[in-house]
Amino acid sequence: MSLTRRGMLKRIIAGSAVVMVPFGAFAEWMESAFKADSYSAALAAMGAEGAVPSDKISLVAPEIAENGAVVPVQVSSTLDDIESISLFVEKNPNPMTAEFKMFPGLEPDFKIRVRMGETSKVIAVVKAGGKAYTAESEVKVTIGGCGG
Predict the structure, then answer these.
(1) Which member of 39, 68, 91, 97 lies 3.0 to 4.6 Å from 141 by CB, making a disulfide possible if both were Cys?
(2) 112 located within any domain
(3) How many structural domains does the chain have?
(4) Is the pTM of this model over 0.90?
């Protein structure tokens, strides 16, 4: 049986509709974490309260950032069964800065530039095996990037 262009289009649209419903619910959940106005509220919104420090997370950030608008940060981890890696800037108005969902075969090693309004802790939260783990680093900002 050959597949016509119209048949292929119908299948793509039907498949997209099935996939969009769960992603819509996921987007609402993530929105509350990204809009949270404190680190603890963001952790609660993403279901990671009680996260514990881990030496299996590497968080590399500069001790001093001359420009808070572009602070380079690298996060990697050797934990097993990683579900996600999230990044927070504790004193930003909205501390959650990024979240990376992990899939099998994806190496848990990311580089990103974040905005920091003032000197603050940068915190990586790794969800793995149903638990949450953290690593943190203090970054001194000399020129703010979030309106500073």
Answers:
(1) 68
(2) yes
(3) 1
(4) no
* Within-domain flag for 129: yes
Position 122 in a domain: yes
Q: What is the pLDDT of residues 70-117, one digit of tens each?
A: 999 999 999 999 999 999 999 999 999 999 998 888 889 999 999 998
- CATH code of residue 109: 2.60.40.2470
Pairing between strand 109-114 and 96-101?
unpaired
Residue 20 is assigned to a structural domain of this protein: no
Phi/psi at 22 (5° precision) = -65, -35
**Edge to edge, what strands does the sheet with 109-114 contain?**
57-60, 71-77, 109-114
34 contacts 94 by C-beta, under 8 angstroms: yes
DSSP conformation letters of 90-118: TTSSS-EEEEEE--TT--SEEEEEE--SS
